[in-house]
Amino acid sequence: MEFEQIMRLVETVASSGLTEFDYEEGHLKIHLGKKSPKILQVSEKDRAADDLAISEDIHRAEKQISAEGDGTAAKEIKGIPIISPIVGVFYAASGPEAEPFVKIGDRIEVGQVIGIVEAMKLMNEIESDVSGIVTEICVEDGDGVEYGQPLIYVQK
Fold first, then answer.
1. Which CA distances in Å does 71 have to 15, 61, 66, 101, 153?
2. d(CA 102, CA 92)
3. CA angle, corner 135, sides to 62 and 119, nearest 5?
4. pLDDT by residue (tens digit) across 42-83?
5. Are strands 122-127 and 132-137 parallel, antiparallel or unpaired?
6. Secondary structure, 3-state, 21-75
7. How far is it, in rounded angstroms, from Cα 17 to Cα 46?
8. Which of 36, 64, 71, 145 has a beta carbon 3.0–4.6 Å from 84's, enabling a disulfide?
9. Within a 10 A sphere around the Cβ of 145, how many other Cβ atoms?
10. Cβ-based neighbours of 73, under 8 Å, separated by 6 or more
């Protein structure tokens, strides 16, 4: 069976009312399937209950935001962020039993390794580009990190 024939078969099954299709010819086996759409019926009673739950969630969130605005729950981040230069998995120490490279309150220098980011099986040492005291560690050992994500904060 040629590629064009397979593509026509896929298009025919997709546009038909079939939900599954099997084809077998010698060593060639093809199974095509598609999910049928689900139709949900929601009564006015269910919709009203959902609206009430949503408004309660909004009210709770507004209370939390106003409490944070009062300074009762807010935590101010101070310092300069050291960000991840790549996407990968963050490691706080050189090994599972080793001490972490940095802890909150540690004094670090420019060029000091603050962690490792594993990307595509390569271990990349992340070095500080600023000297100061570590005020916050934003990621835990084994967390996935994104490009530009703060790893730690350092206060000069």
1. 59, 16, 9, 32, 21
2. 8
3. 90
4. 666 666 666 666 666 666 666 666 666 555 444 565 789 999
5. unpaired
6. EEEEECCEEEEEECCCCCCCCCCHHHHHHHHHHHHHHHHHHHHHHHHHHCCCCCC
7. 32
8. 145
9. 23
10. 64, 67
